[in-house]
Recover the amino acids of this structure.
């Protein structure tokens, strides 16, 4: 498994649990985006409806996949 995949999964767990830096309002969406990004990075297809809901079609009108991409660059 890629180092970035491991990093994303660990961050997703922290966010899902609302741990350090976890926002209880968006934690589940960010965690889902981390997991979806790992699947994408590993070459595994992700349902288009799922991707759409993580990009901007969510109650926060926020692109969680873009946030994950920014996190990967750190």
């Amino acid at each position: 498994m890629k180092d970035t995949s491991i990093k994303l999964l660990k961050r997703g767990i922290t966010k899902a649990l609302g741990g350090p830096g976890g926002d209880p309002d968006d934690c589940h969406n960010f965690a889902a985006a981390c997991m979806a990004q790992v699947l994408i990075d590993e070459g595994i297809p992700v349902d288009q409806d799922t991707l759409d809901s993580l990009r901007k079609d969510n109650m926060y009108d926020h692109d969680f996949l873009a946030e994950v991409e920014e996190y990967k660059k750190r």
Q: What stands out?
A: The chain has a mean pLDDT of 84. The chain has one domain: 3-72.
